[in-house]
Write a structure and sequence with these properties.
7 helices
């Protein structure tokens, strides 16, 4: 829906269309399609039919080429985008991202229930902003609570795929268009690499490259 993924990959525009097909932007060997490339700064305030049309265009009118994985970055909730996606294509699995906070976990629980209801396997949970590693004292500070996603994963018999710390460098890398997983200065690159490997294992893939639409 928004400009987040293109910004985090340093992308600003699409290449020219070819043979009547939209070509995705590309950075770090990742192909990307997003509403942000429409060039309009206005928010996408769309009802169901328009969301469904956009999803169809992203899926079928884009010259993706041969893909290993297609990752769809969905907005939070259980609304039209999620339902349209599951009705248009077979989805191999959903990844639920939440902070440890109970308020966020309430939303995560709803999302899990929705995907289970439409027969989409839930691959696991990711606990984002899991803790803050103090650079001065070395202690881990659990700013948004402790172990929330771990408990929810255990309760629902789902794997915890990763615990991503709250690290200033992730924010800096995201704003500058450099994936933190590629930044050797980031203490979190191993967590992101581990997440990718865990998802690949759950999908039965040995090697993956990710394509993203948002």
């Amino acid at each position: 829906h928004g400009p987040n993924v293109p910004r985090m990959l340093g992308l600003k525009q699409l290449p020219p269309a070819q043979d009547g097909k939209i070509l995705p932007a590309e950075a770090y060997d990742i192909k990307v399609m997003s509403l942000a490339f429409a060039g309009d700064s206005a928010p996408a305030i769309w009802r169901g039919p328009m969301i469904d049309k956009a999803i169809q265009q992203f899926l079928f009118d884009v010259a993706w080429g041969a893909l290993d994985v297609l990752v769809v970055d969905l907005p939070p909730g259980t609304g039209d985008a999620q339902l349209s996606l599951t009705q248009r294509i077979p989805v191999d699995g959903a990844i639920i991202v939440s902070t440890p906070q109970v308020v966020a976990l309430d939303d995560a629980r709803k999302g899990i229930a929705m995907f289970q209801k439409v027969d989409v396997p839930v691959l696991g949970l990711v606990e984002n902003m899991s803790f803050f590693q103090c650079p001065d004292c070395g202690s881990a500070h659990h700013i948004f609570g402790h172990g929330g996603a771990v408990k929810l994963a255990a309760e629902l018999d789902l794997p915890l795929l990763a615990e991503i710390p709250l690290e200033p460098l992730i924010r800096e890398d995201s704003d500058s268009g450099l994936p933190a997983v590629l930044d050797p200065q980031s203490g979190s690159h191993r967590a992101f690499q581990g997440l990718a490997e865990a998802v690949a294992e759950r999908l039965g893939l040995l090697q993956t490259t990710a394509e993203v639409i948002s």
